[in-house]
Amino acid sequence: MSRRYGFTLVELLVVIAIIAVLIGLLLPAVQAARESARRTSCGNKMKQAGLALHTYHGAKKSLPRSFGNRNMTNPAFTANNGKAGWQQGTPDTWAAEVFPFLENQQLYDQFDFTKRVGDTSRSVARPMSNSMLVQQVLAMYICPSDPFGTTPVFKNRCNYSNYRQTAEQHGIWYAACFGPTVLIDRPGCQYCPTNATWGSSTSPGSTNPCCNLVGPGSHQGFGGVAIGMFSQEPIRTSFKDVPDGLSKTIMLGETLPNDTVHNGAYMNGMTVLTNIPINTFAAASELVQVGKHDPDNGVAPDYKLNGIKSRHGAGANVTMGDASVRFVADSVSDPLLWAMGTRALGLRDVVKVAAE
Question: Mean pLDDT lowest for which of 34-43, 196-205, 338-347?
Answer without folding.
Answer: 196-205
